[in-house]
Specification:
elongated, 9 helices, 9 strands, about 280 residues, six-stranded parallel beta sheet, three-stranded antiparallel beta sheet
């Protein structure tokens, strides 16, 4: 396989990243930019539509909020689940298989890293393919809940063109007739097993993510603007230990001032090039 640098990449920056990461155990942190080539949009990337995602407090506060969320999320799920891993996901799985990385911490909720073959993945913000009861804690496969939603809301046909958000949500104008699903075990409130805005990452999950970073010699951040606090906290762990940090992202990130190397390019092509050189 050729190690030639793709013409769209900065060869010097790529060489520097390879020199920094080579021979080290690398922890990986990924954000929405890794999944854009799979058709899942980025909240903050250039050209991204302005959105005000529902907060956890709103979701809990009233049935109308839950109707709006579940109606949009149900439509979005059909497109979201059809997404497939791209070259960036596959490159990270290749790096793990070669022993270069010790796993992936992802801020994404699409489970595409697992589907690409990555074995150790910390889904920092959960995954949209699971649903949990906030009352009894019972967990359900999203497909099971989706089937119930379709049966209870047969009038809700998928539009020809769904404007999908990174969390699998779409906008639905008429929600009055929508039937919100309940837990089949206790009748409690159901919620996709993802961390909403205004909700905290579970302590044990963050501890697992932190252990990946602490157990590595370098940190590779791909496709994250690092606006979300959980990502910055992991970067803090790396910089306190004076670990080399490589940031791959189109445009500016909050981690750029602390990056040892910044590669301003697409994640799929960059991660593929890194995998060719390092594995």
């Amino acid at each position: 396989m050729s190690n030639a640098t793709p013409p769209s990449l900065d060869a010097a920056a790529l060489d520097e990243a390879v020199a920094l990461l080579g021979g080290r155990t690398v922890a990986v942190l990924t954000g929405a930019g890794v999944s854009t080539d799979s058709g899942i949009p980025d909240y903050r990337g250039e050209g991204a539509p302005v959105r005000n995602p529902m907060t956890f407090q709103q979701f809990l506060s009233g049935e109308r909020y839950r109707k709006r969320y579940w109606a949009g999320s149900h439509l979005g799920w059909r497109s979201f689940r059809a997404a497939t891993p791209n070259g960036g996901h596959r490159a990270l799985a290749q790096l793990e298989a070669a022993g270069v990385t010790n796993g992936v911490v992802t801020q994404n909720v699409d489970a595409l890293h697992e589907r690409a073959g990555s074995r150790r993945v910390v889904d920092l913000h959960g995954t949209v393919d699971r649903v949990v009861c906030l009352t009894c804690g019972q967990s359900f496969a999203r497909d099971v809940v989706a089937a119930r939603l379709s049966a209870a809301n047969p009038w809700l046909d998928e539009p020809e063109s769904v404007r999908l958000a990174p969390d699998g949500d779409v906008e639905v104008a008429d929600i009055d007739a929508f039937v919100v699903p309940e837990c089949t075990v206790c009748g409690g409130m159901l919620k996709p097993d993802v961390v909403f805005f205004g909700e905290f990452v579970p302590v044990e999950r963050f501890a697992e993510a932190r252990s990946l970073v602490v157990g590595a010699d370098a940190l590779l951040i791909a496709g994250s603007s690092l606006v979300v606090n959980s990502g910055i906290r992991l970067l803090d762990q790396a910089t306190r230990r004076k670990m080399p940090v490589v940031v791959v992202n189109r445009g500016v990130t909050k981690g750029d001032p602390r990056a040892t190397v910044k590669i301003d390019a697409g994640t799929s092509e960059t991660l593929t090039a890194l995998a060719r050189r390092l594995s």
